[in-house]
């Protein structure tokens, strides 16, 4: 066994970073692991819709990193990565902090992508983190004080757009006239057929208007401009929620520092960054050579994290790392309060039964994570508070 002098530094403690850190610690408890994240809390993003609908509370889906990592015996530092010097193996953080590493794992996730469309950054709401969620919640709540049938547009017919449209309709009933804008000729065009069909039914049942083959050209303070079959339409809007795509969160990377593909860091099938064998990129920020079609999901991020933990343990023992293989465990989509659709491992389910099964499946997807995340299953099984044991009374808000 080789010993290592400097720490394994993991930057970003979302689904990918959290999984690699906790699994690596399990495999080799003596390794020096340092996890750095610019935030104080983990965000369980797939549960953000349930927070919006008050099916769970915000603190239940956002456990504190300090609690999770101290429990696992891993050092956690709250700071923001600003630069990587690959040649010198040095990381620079805000507040003039510098760190050197023996192995580096970067997994800093995604940001909403406005595709530089005029007015999107300034005039749209987003749904990517809890700042976005709180902002949206305040707007929706405030709207209840005024007239009904406000014009709400959701741009993007992917899972986020569909899940949001159904939840908002179920929560606010007639408060909003909901319009879903999708640029291709069908919703959920990268998802399983069964889920697509269930989603179409759910949208129809809720009288949500779906505009296919429609592209947003501009969003102003009061209007949304849409191009559809060469016709440009300008429509009044009260709110536009932008869920049309994400881009990797890589502001700390010099443009020519490493090879990218489709804007994401290109890694080999051992998850290593080209020409930097001690550096790894996983989760939403990276794309694996030869596996470019993998979806940008927590499922992929966690499988990569799990695999990388094994590879790092092998490398430190002087052994060769193994190629990553993705196992498609299927997909689940919530379709309003108390309903969902599942297409997984040969099973398809919809409606209330699927909603209950979705909870069980979430639990089964968290087998290798420490007790902190396993306690999510307490909510899944019993509707109890997630991560309760990590929240002392004075931490609750
Ligand atoms: C609303 C919503 C619902 C979703 N639902 C599902 C679902 O049902 N199923 C599914 O599989 N996927 C879902 N996804 C996608 C899934 O959440 C992402 O694919 C997953 O979070 C990616 O994991 P990650 O570790 O790459 O990034 P993240 O989980 O986003 O973690 C990135 C971490 O990096 C930190 N960070 C960023 N920049 C820096 C920096 N410069 N310095 C230090 N730290 C930094 C952030 O604070 C964050 O903690 C959903 C996403 C959203 C937004």
Write up what this structure looks like.
- The chain has 397 residues and is of the alpha/beta class.
- Helix content is 29%, strand content 26%.
- It has helices spanning 15-27, 48-52, 65-72, 120-123, 130-143, 159-172, 193-205, 298-316, 351-364, 371-374, 376-382, and strands at 8-11, 33-37, 75-78, 81-85, 90-93, 98-100, 103-106, 110-112, 150-155, 176-181, 209-211, 214-219, 223-228, 231-236, 239-242, 246-248, 260-261, 264-267, 272-273, 276-281, 286-288, 331-334, 340-344, 347-350.
- It is globular and about 65 Å long.
- Flavin-adenine dinucleotide (FAD) is lined by residues 11-17, 36-39, 45-46, 48, 80-81, 107-109, 127-128, 160, 249, 252, 283-284, 296-299, 301.
Question: Which keywords apply here?
Answer:
397 residues; alpha/beta; FAD/NAD(P)-binding domain; 2 domains; four-stranded parallel sheet; 24 strands; 26% strand; globular; binds flavin-adenine dinucleotide
